[in-house]
Amino acid sequence: MEELLVACDAAFVVTDSARTQWTIGNVHIRKTLAWREADGLCLQSLEHCATGHAWRPQFHANAQAGGEFSLRWNDVVLSARQAMALRGVRAEAGASSVTLRIDLHLADALEVALCVRARSDTAVIEQWLEVTAFQAGVISRVAPLMVSVDGMSAPVLHWARGLQGHGAGMPASGSYPAFQVRHEPLGAVGLESGLRSTWHEIAWLALDGDDGGDGLFVGLSYSGRWSAEARAIEGGACLNLYSDGYVTPLDAGQRWISPVSFLGLYHGDLDAAAHVQHTYMRRAVIPPTPEDFPWVQYNTWFAHLVDIDEAILRREAELAAHLGAEVFVIDAGWWEPSRRTSDNFTTGLGTWQPSVEKFPSGLPAFGDYVRSLGMKFGIWVEPERVDLRQPATWRLDWLVRHHDAIVSPPWPPDTVSGWLCFGHPAVQAWAIDWISRLVEGVDADWLKWDSNWWGVCTCTHHGHSPTDGEWHQVQGVHVVMAELRRRFPHLIIENCAGGGVRTDFAMLANTHITWLHDASTPSRRVRFHLAGAAYLFPPELCNTWIVDADDEPLTDSATPRAALDAIARSRMFGAFGVSARLPAWTDAAFTAVQAAVVQYKQLRPLLKRGRFYHLLPQTELACTELALHGQWEAYAVIDAAAGEGVIWLFRADDGAPVRRLYLCGLEATRIYALTDSDTAQVIEASGAALMTTGFDADLHDRTSALLRVHALT
To answer: What is the mean pLDDT of the chain?
Structure first.
């Protein structure tokens, strides 16, 4: 008989009569762990409550397999199955969650607390370790959550690739890889982040059978390097995510807390997994945002690089306000002595004093002007990099050194910059101080945080050891961001490249919106990025900007309205933004984007609360032209309870003019109207018919369409 230990709303922890088995969960997910003298701490079952499906543990002769966690202590790999004794168990209730803490004596050297948290309203469980050393040693390669389960028929592994190194790069031939979603029958797969946390791959793996039944996914909230193992084992599967890139020494009595891993359960296809992931991110990870967020952005970077001044930006601000922008963000180049040449934004980094030459009236006055136009005001910073040629308030002994050499990025080539060690408490205090003064001085509503290099510090006087500089670097960035959020609760922090090369789950715990990729043209590439990223990240977090491009000209009167609509719609199912020279646009382009902004604001509440669907598989873009070769794209956001939704359709220029499509997420017995926003044509059908029989989408004279979905009373 189960005994309730603690509860919070729908989340609970119960134990058996012997108090050697514990279940944590809610109405969506239940996880049961058990202590056995012979086996240590092991999974007993993992249950998807809606379907009743339960995964059982997969045990093996290998002592590492089947355990709940793994870590390397000195040169020995230890797992939960090697625990020598159960020290104690505690269950606690928080504001909206419950936490189960199981204290273990591990291999005579460590006390390890396995911490498991369930919230009341998501089908996701979080897990991390709190490690205390009995004697001095080093810890590395930690997997806070290991999944080893049986009963998966023909398991298929899914994941979304990272940026593949440099943000704008692509291979010379073959399929375009950035944010490409992979689906492979599970054999033995090894993945790793590369230099930064989303450099090659992203730390999120989903696993399901080939029958569209129940599946599970795992993720790691860590902004440093990581690796993963996924393999089929004797009719089951094993998924492990390890935080890497550090070897941390611990003194006797010292405590160390691991990154958080999370595990979710779903039923259906990968969109079902994405829905569970989005719900978890929105309710448990991302900081709160205003009701009307994400705001329509105007950003100066792709329009002007660092060649900006007060007169240029006043004109852009006036047009941005007329276009419908809600926040105006000055990107790089606003400080002294930033030059007005090319994209060299490194000159003057670290001084952080507004340029009198560029802003003779003062930057605060320009911010006031932006607000007088009805927009909010934002500003760009790169706190982790400094110009070594400029005197400033930072100190030389704060610089990251790798084996005594200053980490100095080689780009741009006509500058000399260094990387600051954010593991150093003095650097954290310095960054908090000057960023706070900047935010207060210009009354910023938005802070864009960039990070254009990466180096691992091996110094011994920065508050870390020679072998765990990366760990402390990323933790230091989180410390600074968290303090800024505490000081300025209204401030929106955009993650451009802090932590991971673009974003990761740990960064999103301290930031409100993220930049996916520098390559923002052509539109089909922007859609490709978002199609892949939207499995992991709620789409409203992902910046999608309209940028001037030679192959999609907004400055050419010959560009037809249908092409202009497609350019704008390609940014409408992410966080809508513009970074372009608005005075150069044709009237037709301005009118088309202005109309899209109006539509976006109408759809924004739906985008945030609805369920995102990929109605067609992600396209295959052929490098280097990124050719679509006749492919269609179709995306939908549906709020079944409210009876409304929206569909975005795109076809290649050489694609078939008509395509049969099938909707998802509707109520079978309700009658729906699909209204084409261009032609006003209406299709009426039942939810059952739209999902099983489908409808014919007609794009004879267009390459895109936007359809509104409404349930009829």
So the answer is: 94
DSSP, collapsed to helix, strand or coil, labels residue 79 as strand
Structure tokens that stand for 151 in this block: 């009963």
Q: Which helix (H) or strand (E) holds 433?
A: helix 425-442
CA 213 → CA 121, 273, 555, 658, distances in Å? Answer: 22, 11, 50, 31
Three-state SS at 156: strand
Res. 63 pLDDT band, cuts 50 70 90: very low
Three-state SS sequence of 304-325: HCCCCCHHHHHHHHHHHHHHCC
Query: Is residue 185 reached through a cis peptide bond, with omega within 30 degrees of 0 on the bond before it?
Result: no
**Of 610, 619, 599, residue with least CA distance to 664:** 610
Strand 297-299 relative to strand 417-419, pairing: unpaired
Task: Report how far apart, in Å, the C-alpha atoms of 141 and of each of 79, 427, 557, 617 are.
Answer: 12, 27, 57, 35
What pLDDT, in 10s, does the model give residues 160-194? 999 987 666 788 899 999 999 999 999 989 999 99
**Coil, helix or strand at residue 343:** coil
What is the Cα–Cα distance from 114 to 286, expressed in whole angstroms? 24
What does residue 372 show for φ and ψ, rounded to 5 degrees? -65, -20
CA 35 vs. chain centroid, Å, equals 35
Strands 513-515 and 492-495: parallel
| Rounded Cα–Cα distance for residues 175 and 641 (Å) | 39
Distances (CA, A) of 318 to 253, 294, 360, 374, 651: 60, 20, 19, 10, 34
Of all helices (H) and strands (E), which one includes residue 148?
Answer: strand 146-150
Residues 6+ apart with CB under 8 A from 482: 510
Nearest to 483 by CA among 564, 425, 559: 425
Q: Which of 500, 513, 503 is nearest to 540 (CA)?
A: 513
Which one-letter amino acid corresponds to residue 417?
S
| Alpha carbons 441 and 364: distance in angstroms, whole number | 7
Q: CB-based contacts of 282: which residues, under 8 Å, 6+ apart?
A: 538, 608
> Torsions phi, psi of 484, nearest 5?
-60, -40
pTM value > 0.90 = yes
Return the structure tokens found at 27: 């109405």
What is the per-residue DSSP string for 636-701?
EEEETTTTEEEEEEEE-TTS-SEEEE---S--TTSEEEEEETTT--EEEEEHHHHHHT-EEEE-TT
- Listed in sequence order, the residues at least 6 apart from 229 whose beta carbon sits closer than 8 Å to its beta carbon are 188, 189, 190, 238, 239, 240, 242
pLDDT digits (tens, 9 = 90+) for 245-262: 999 999 999 999 999 999
